[in-house]
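Researcher: I'd like a structural prediction for the single chain below. Treat it as a standalone chain; there are no partners to consider.
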Amino acid sequence: MVFFHHHLSKEDRMTKLRREFIDSLQSRGLSPKTIRNYVNAVRDLSRHYGRSPCELASDEIVSYQLCMLREKKLSAATVNLHMDAVRTFFRLMLPESRVMVDIPHVKVPKRIPVVLSRSEVQRMIELTTNLKHKSILMLLYGSGLRVGECAALKPCHIESSRMKVRVEQGKGKKDRYTLLSNNTLLVLQDYYRRFRPKQYLFVGHRGKALGARMMGKAVQNAARRAGINKRVHAHVLRHCFATHLLEAGVALPIIQQLLGHDSIKTTMIYLHVGQAQIDRVVSPLDMEEVVHA
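Model: Treating it as a single chain, here is the predicted structure.
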């Protein structure tokens, strides 16, 4: 059974197996983006060998895993995401198969998130003159939004009476509230008066929501203008939100709730990047109580 017919029209490429896989993912409540990523990962595997994934043996999947690492130069985390999609395919579509049983995850190097200083973030915002881009930067940093959450915002999600931002169907399809900064609200009010957004707060071409990629470019351009040489992307501002709150003494469970993390273990990574707290620690030898010889 072929997963993806290359020679057919786009409409005919949806084979029975592929359709069943999509239906199974949808029935489990996965987001359209996750479904698309899973389907594309299995399709790429099928294209690599020119056969249905159902016909592949364990050693072929391991070879594909190595190909992604060595030839395509994909990161370990990306390869693991691809392989998780393939595992899900076999678990749902071929539950009796043991093809994926002994295929390990690639070890992912532990990296501490890139975090900017408060002055660096402030410089990025101050040097951004485009009102839409300034609003985006301030929401990503001031509210700790994921870029996809920012892209999905509607005017009604800015609850100025409560000074909250409502995030609907965030990661894991969970709603939550996060902070709305006074400074952000002032800029958003100017933005609203000028652009009068209706369906989405930030609109791109043809009235559709501004894409996450364009938001990412706005962040990168702001970092460049501010003379920041670190590897800055849109998610860095979310890292800054969490780290700067932690450095200000906000409790980790509160930060977890604001970020929308399911597990506090995910939030705990910011314990390793709170440099301001580390800088304030005094060596025991320098404490006043220590009597020097």
